[in-house]
């Protein structure tokens, strides 16, 4: 069993990891495997540990041939083209390809740390070739990593939010906790998430629209309530770290409007958008519902809904769509006729019926196949629906109210292939970043299923390795007798306290 210091003891630490999700855990494990002593600080209580990673399901993986749970092949170039398409070119190709290649080699390492994989389930077959699913989901992955970290001797503290860090130029010196404690270390990995649960920052980023609305006031947060962006803002504003990304860009999904404010997770998603039409509260369509396969395009719909009046939309389907998508947790509003559905959804009847009538008349139905980019499309209606367009004419009919659900934000710290935080385009010698805090280097906009975990795993592993190396260099430069400042009080929040 690993030794855990009592509150009275002091321990010199090589690597400090700030954060408690996938990227942070990957960094902590890699640093510990490299021989460094590691302390991980998680701001959440133990029961809520893991951040947004607890809500994940899979990892997008490059592979040149079938591999256990992954069917067929998903080569590097196809992965890159998928990423290029959803980001519209707003990505660093060097870092993106680094992530893609790392995704092909990380799973054996993940298995060694207790992560198990399973084949894609019914309703997720679109990604059976591209994504490896975690058995038990993200919560099981997070728990496996924490167990492995504890067994390896990583010190873990919960309810330990960091308010600021102490720097000397580009060099990390110490972290200052909300309780006033100062923790110094030879190197540090920042993996504390984005700012999606900071409502004030979201309001500041999105501002007020032409209708006088504050769109961010209607956003739901799909993940953790603990990603406030405190350290991100501190690094950018107080230390002048180089920034990457647009603060309004995010992994933002159209989710069930009845979802909770925080931690609704994957089960709040509404997956029938491509099988019907989506209207705003005025009863009007506003985007091509059949643009591409759902796993590639689902994450654009949150932003689209955020731009509509009242930040709300309604996914409308008929009985032909039932059984072709993963059913949501809450049943949709059901009606025997379209006018009745409009009434139940409180949508303007005349506009709604004109929208549906025009759409139905514009459908050119060929060979419907929701597993391919089929030839069912509309003609003479705007916006067009380019695939899977079939008349909505078979009762009963269903409607789902949609709101923007923010998963994580893309504004972050600029980095390179060493995961070093950069200041005036110069890398820090001992401060590294992983996960949501740097995802904007790869994701300028858009999203494709599972790539967030690919980024977090790749850069978490890189950051942990680099942090251990930086700590080793520091040790050689500064013998043990000279590191009195690099002492921490483990406190009563230790993992086994």
Automatic annotation (TrEMBL):
Molecular-function GO term, any one: oxidoreductase activity
Domain of life according to the entry: Bacteria
Keyword annotations of the record: FAD, Flavoprotein, Oxidoreductase
Record's keyword annotation contains Oxidoreductase: yes
Coiled coil regions in record: none
Cofactor: FAD
FAD-dependent oxidoreductase 2 FAD-binding domain boundaries: 14-442
Matching InterPro entries: CobZ, FAD-dep_OxRdtase_2_FAD-bd, FAD-oxidoreductase_2, FAD/NAD-bd_sf, Succ_DH/fumarate_Rdtase_cat_sf
Matches recorded under Pfam families: FAD_binding_2 (PF00890)
NCBIfam families the UniProt entry points to: CobZ_N-term, PRK08274.1
Name by which UniProt lists this protein: Tricarballylate dehydrogenase
Organism for this UniProt entry: Acidovorax kalamii
Taxonomic placement: Bacteria, Pseudomonadati, Pseudomonadota, Betaproteobacteria, Burkholderiales
């Amino acid at each position: 069993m690993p030794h855990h210091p009592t509150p009275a003891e002091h321990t010199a630490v090589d690597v400090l990891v700030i954060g408690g999700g996938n990227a942070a855990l990957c960094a902590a494990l890699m640093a510990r495997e490299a021989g460094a002593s590691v302390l991980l600080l998680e701001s959440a209580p133990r029961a809520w540990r893991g951040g947004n990673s607890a809500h994940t399901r899979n990892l997008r993986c490059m592979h040149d041939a079938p591999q256990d749970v992954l069917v067929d092949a998903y080569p590097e170039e196809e992965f890159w083209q998928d990423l290029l398409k959803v980001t519209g070119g707003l990505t660093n190709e060097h870092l993106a390809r680094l992530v893609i290649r790392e995704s092909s080699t990380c799973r054996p390492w993940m298995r060694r740390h207790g992560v198990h994989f399973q084949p894609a389930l019914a309703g997720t077959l679109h990604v059976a070739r591209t994504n490896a699913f975690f058995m038990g989901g993200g919560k099981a992955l997070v728990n496996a990593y924490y167990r492995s970290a504890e067994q390896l001797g990583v010190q873990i503290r919960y309810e330990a939010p960091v308010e600021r860090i102490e720097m000397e130029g580009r060099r990390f010196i110490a972290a200052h906790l909300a309780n006033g404690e100062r923790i110094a270390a030879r190197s540090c990995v920042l993996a504390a998430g984005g700012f999606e649960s900071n409502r004030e920052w979201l309001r500041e980023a999105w501002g007020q629209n032409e209708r006088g609305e504050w769109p961010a006031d209607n956003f739901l947060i799909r993940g953790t309530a603990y990603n406030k962006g405190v350290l991100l803002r501190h690094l950018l504003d107080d230390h002048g770290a180089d920034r990457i990304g647009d603060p309004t860009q995010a992994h933002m999904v159209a989710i069930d409007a009845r979802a909770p404010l925080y931690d609704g997770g994957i089960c709040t998603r509404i997956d029938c958008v491509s099988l019907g039409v989506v209207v705003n509260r005025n009863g009007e369509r506003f985007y091509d519902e059949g643009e591409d396969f759902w796993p590639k395009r689902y994450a654009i719909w949150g932003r689209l809904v955020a731009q509509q009046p009242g930040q709300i939309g309604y996914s409308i389907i008929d009985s032909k769509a039932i059984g072709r998508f993963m059913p949501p947790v809450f049943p949709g509003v059901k009606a025997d006729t379209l006018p009745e559905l409009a009434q139940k959804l409180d949508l303007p009847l005349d506009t709604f019926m004109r929208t549906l009538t025009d759409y139905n008349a514009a459908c050119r139905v060929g060979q419907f196949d929701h597993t391919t980019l089929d030839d069912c499309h509309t003609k003479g209606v705007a916006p067009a629906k380019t695939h899977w367009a079939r008349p909505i004419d078979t009762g009963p009919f269903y409607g789902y109210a949609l709101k923007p659900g923010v998963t994580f934000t893309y504004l972050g710290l600029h980095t390179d292939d060493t995961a070093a935080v950069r200041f005036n385009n110069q890398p820090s010698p001992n401060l590294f970043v992983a996960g949501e805090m740097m995802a904007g280097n790869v994701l300028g906009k858009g999203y494709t299923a599972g790539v967030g975990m690919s980024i977090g795993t790749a850069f978490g592993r890189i950051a942990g390795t680099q942090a251990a190396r930086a700590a080793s260099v520091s040790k050689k430069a500064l013998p043990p007798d000279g590191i009195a400042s690099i002492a921490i009080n483990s406190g009563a929040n230790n993992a086994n306290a």
